[in-house]
Design brief:
DNA polymerase, domain 1, alpha+beta, single chain, Ubiquitin-like (UB roll), 2 domains
Length: 166
């Protein structure tokens, strides 16, 4: 099969590759770019372990062809932390609130939560639960994940207030 050119931005970095038209975005990220934080779970869009942010929308990258990301911006779990490796407040709160156990769902869960907080910086517990419903966790029972997201939201809002006051 002949390859096609693909140009996109991944975690703020421009990327150009030749890819097979049927290559899934999750495989492109993991195999072509070495971004293995995006996990492959069910490969049927049920679990959400492969969730990435594609042009401002949470998508399950196991159901998106890499060529569908042509000209778009992708953010993976590797792009949530600061460039110097400093963890994002969501990542810190997942750690502090024990929002992970085996870690399989964590990258997709954090990327989804990141998008949620971009869209709704003050979500209720019910809104958080609704918004992460497409990401399955087999370990924690979700309460610690929800607590972590709510704590991150509160910290981000407090930081924004401090910035505004300065």
């Amino acid at each position: 099969m002949s390859k096609v050119p693909l140009t996109l931005t991944v975690n703020g970095r421009s990327v150009e590759r030749l890819v097979e038209p049927r290559l899934l975005l999750v495989h492109f990220l993991r195999e072509e770019l070495g971004l293995t934080g995006t996990h492959i779970g069910c490969e049927t869009s049920h679990c959400g372990a492969c969730t990435v942010d594609l042009d401002g929308v949470s998508v399950k990258s196991c159901t998106v062809l890499a060529v569908q990301a042509q000209g778009k911006e992708v953010r993976t779990i590797e792009g949530i932390a600061a460039p110097d490796g400093t963890l994002h407040v969501l990542q810190e709160k997942f750690r502090e609130h024990h929002g992970l156990q085996c870690g399989w769902c964590t990258p997709g869960m954090i990327v989804r939560a990141w998008r949620l907080l971009q869209e709704n910086p003050n979500p209720s517990e019910a809104e958080v639960r609704f918004e992460i419903a497409g990401n399955l966790c087999r370990c924690t029972g979700y309460q610690n994940i929800v607590d972590a997201i709510l704590a991150a939201a509160a910290e981000l809002r407090a930081a924004k207030k401090l910035e505004a006051a300065a």
